[in-house]
Amino acid sequence: MPNYDLTKYEQETLISYNQEEDAAIIDTCDKKLIRKLDKLCDKLSTITVENQNQYGKTYKLPKKWIKISTPRQLSEKTRKKLAERAKSNFSN
User: Fold this and answer.
1) What is the CA radius of gyration of the chain?
2) pLDDT of 22-71, one tens digit each?
3) Does some domain include residue 52?
4) How many domains does the chain have?
5) Long-range CB contacts (within 8 A, 24+) of 4-8
6) Domain residues for 16?
7) Is residue 88, in this structure, part of any structural domain at all?
8) Is 47 exposed, middle or buried (0-12, 13-18, 19+ CB in 10 A)?
9) Is 84 among the domain residues?
10) Which has the higher per-residue pLDDT, 2 or 41?
């Protein structure tokens, strides 16, 4: 079979879990997410690779790690304070 690269549209990530079990499954073809999850696998025994193929990997991890939140809203004053702090941290 010839080598085939997935388009960005085809690089899906699926997250599934149910109310009975404590684990969630992440099935992804997103290379950036795969790198992040692989690093977590190296550090923690609570996340494991369940399956992999030429396109992606499937991970099992604690369901409580799955979180959906809105982006943090910063006031202009807070944004300026954080920018000044970052400048001073990187100038040293």
Assistant:
1) 19
2) 999 999 999 999 999 999 999 999 999 999 999 999 999 999 999 999 99
3) yes
4) 1
5) 6/55
6) 1-66
7) no
8) buried
9) no
10) 41
